[in-house]
Amino acid sequence: MARSLTENERAVLAHAVQLPDLWWKIANEANLHMTAEEALAAKVGRYQSIYAAASGQPGYQTRLERDIADPDMPHLNSEEDA
Hints:
Largest sheet: none
Number of strands: 0
Order of helices and strands: HHHH
Structural class: mainly alpha
Helix content: 55-70%
Distance between the termini: 31 Å
């Protein structure tokens, strides 16, 4: 069983991916060329400073929130998904 994400890992992942817990679950189940921990470290390392700069701004939104608000991505907030 995979360990739980830390608060920071979840927050940074939420900046980069829509569903951080699902990303972590898939990373742990996938047959990757790297371990799930290595994938997590790479993803968090890549987005940590970007997240830190963005999250301090007024009106900060996670990736999911940004995508839902994006009119070019209507499938995320449509009746078809119900």
